[in-house]
Write a structure and sequence with these properties.
mainly alpha; 171 residues
C-alpha cells in the first residue's frame, strides 16, 4: 500500500499543476477542454473505502480549484465522481472478480470494459462540471457539445496517459 501511496502522491503533485498550467489552455475550437487530472480518481483501488476515495477526490478538485480560481466547481464534481466510482466500476465488471487492492486497468478489467469505464467517468465529470459552471440550461446545444467534445478529448488523453504509465510499470 505504501508503494501505491507514493505513486499516488507523485501523480497528484504532477497532474494538478499540469491541469492548471497546461491542459486548461489546450482548448479545441472554444468547446473542448481536456480534464486529465481525473485520472487521480480513476486510478484509485476499487477496494478503497468510499470515505477515503471521496476525500481524495475532494482534495484533487480543491487543488485544481485553487490553481484555476474556480470556486468549488471541480471540488464538487470530483467528490461526486469519486462517490460514484465504485458503482460505475461494477457496471462493467462483475462483483465476483477478485480485485483486492488493485487499481482499475485494462490488464485487470479487460480492454473493452476499462475503456467503457474511462469514458463513463469522463462523461460524468464533464457533465457535472459544465452543468454546474453554466448553472442553467440557457444554451442547451452548446452545453451538450461542450460535454461531448470534452469527454472525447479527455478520454483520448487519459488513454494515452494510461498507456504511458502501464508501459513504465511493466518495465
Amino acid at each position: 500500500m505504501t508503494k501505491f501511496a507514493i505513486r499516488y502522491l507523485i501523480a497528484f503533485l504532477l497532474l494538478i499543476p499540469a491541469q492548471a498550467i497546461i491542459f486548461n489552455h489546450l482548448i479545441l475550437f472554444d468547446v473542448a477542454v481536456p480534464v486529465v487530472f481525473i485520472y487521480l480518481i480513476i486510478m484509485l483501488p476499487i477496494t478503497l473505502g468510499t470515505n477515503i476515495s471521496t476525500t481524495l477526490g475532494f482534495l484533487a478538485g480543491l487543488g485544481v480549484d485553487i490553481f484555476c480560481d474556480t470556486p468549488g466547481v471541480n471540488a464538487l464534481s470530483c467528490t461526486l465522481l469519486a462517490f460514484a466510482r465504485k458503482p460505475i466500476f461494477h457496471l462493467y465488471v462483475s462483483t465476483d472478480d477478485d480485485l483486492a487492492g488493485r487499481s482499475p486497468s485494462s490488464r485487470n478489467m479487460g480492454h473493452a470494459a476499462y475503456m467503457k469505464f474511462m469514458v463513463t467517468m469522463a462523461l460524468i465529470y464533464c457533465a457535472l462540471v459544465f452543468t454546474i459552471e453554466a448553472f442553467q440550461f440557457f444554451n442547451f446545444r452548446l452545453l451538450v457539445l461542450r460535454i461531448a467534445a470534452s469527454t472525447v478529448y479527455t478520454f483520448i488523453l487519459l488513454y494515452a496517459l494510461d498507456c504511458f504509465t502501464l508501459r513504465n510499470r511493466a518495465s
